[in-house]
Automatic annotation (TrEMBL):
It comes from Lutimaribacter pacificus. Residues 41-108 form the Protein YjdM C-terminal domain. NCBIfam families: phnA. The keyword Transport does not apply. This is Phosphonoacetate hydrolase. The keyword Hydrolase applies.
Length: 110
């Protein structure tokens, strides 16, 4: 797992000290969300996802119980994050309301 860079100076040489993150270059200390609790949902390349984000599907996904496939490259707008195995709730035109796994999408940054 990679540690986040310092939010003050951008240094990558940060380290963990108990529940705090510490930057050795500027001395900034900050707290990170407790691991395991309120986990950030991330896409396939590690971008944190949020409600309302737009993502694209990075591989063909067969939908269980149907003959539909969500094609790679499909753009999905206005996602909603939910708890569970399929952690993205979304509506895909022509497919309907489905759940996606965050590891199969990539966030679209504007
Ligand atoms: Zn710093």
């Amino acid at each position: 797992m990679q540690l986040p860079p310092c939010p003050e100076c951008g240094s990558a040489f940060t380290y963990e000290l108990d529940a705090l993150m510490v930057c050795p270059e500027c001395g900034h200390e900050w707290s990170v969300a407790a691991a395991g609790e309120d986990d950030v949902i991330r896409d396939a390349v590690g971008n944190p996802l949020a409600d309302g984000d737009t993502v694209t599907v990075i591989k063909d996904l067969k939908l269980g119980g149907t003959s539909s496939t969500v094609k790679v490259g499909t753009k999905v707008r206005n996602i909603r994050l939910v708890a569970g195995d399929h952690d993205i709730d979304c509506k895909i035109p022509g497919v309907g309301q489905i759940g996606l796994k965050s590891q199969f999408v990539k966030k679209v940054t504007k």
